[in-house]
Amino acid sequence: MAATRRPGAYHCGTDAAMDVIGGKWKVLILWALGEHVSRFGELRRMLPGVTEKVLAAQLRELEVDGIVHREVYDEVPPRVEYSLTPRGVSLNEALVPLGEWGRRHILEHGHTGTAEASSAR
């Protein structure tokens, strides 16, 4: 990880991973970028409820950690695209079992409508 946002050494691998994916929107940003390369506005539409400020900050943190790549094209108007780095792809793969656990948890507790919406996560 390129940047640590909290002081002290990590206690375990899960602690290190949580430092990277901690934050309300980061896992959903990873899911969205796992679908395809996206521009900022597209990510914002894919993540209803996220503010521009929070999305920009979390993308910046993921970029610093080597999870997200930000490509700026020399065009008018300017175009910026976000994609997963190989490290980001491997992190998304590691999150698959967590998503499966979440789906089982939703189904076991009788929640409706959310399991289908999050089936790709």
From TrEMBL:
<dbReference type="GO" id="GO:0003677">
    <property type="term" value="F:DNA binding"/>
</dbReference>
<keyword id="KW-0238">DNA-binding</keyword>
<dbReference type="InterPro" id="IPR002577">
    <property type="entry name" value="HTH_HxlR"/>
</dbReference>
<dbReference type="InterPro" id="IPR036390">
    <property type="entry name" value="WH_DNA-bd_sf"/>
</dbReference>
<feature type="domain" description="HTH hxlR-type">
    <location>
        <begin position="12"/>
        <end position="110"/>
    </location>
</feature>
<keyword id="KW-0805">Transcription regulation</keyword>
<protein>
    <submittedName>
        <fullName>DNA-binding transcriptional regulator, HxlR family</fullName>
    </submittedName>
</protein>
<keyword id="KW-0804">Transcription</keyword>
<dbReference type="Pfam" id="PF01638">
    <property type="entry name" value="HxlR"/>
</dbReference>
<dbReference type="InterPro" id="IPR036388">
    <property type="entry name" value="WH-like_DNA-bd_sf"/>
</dbReference>
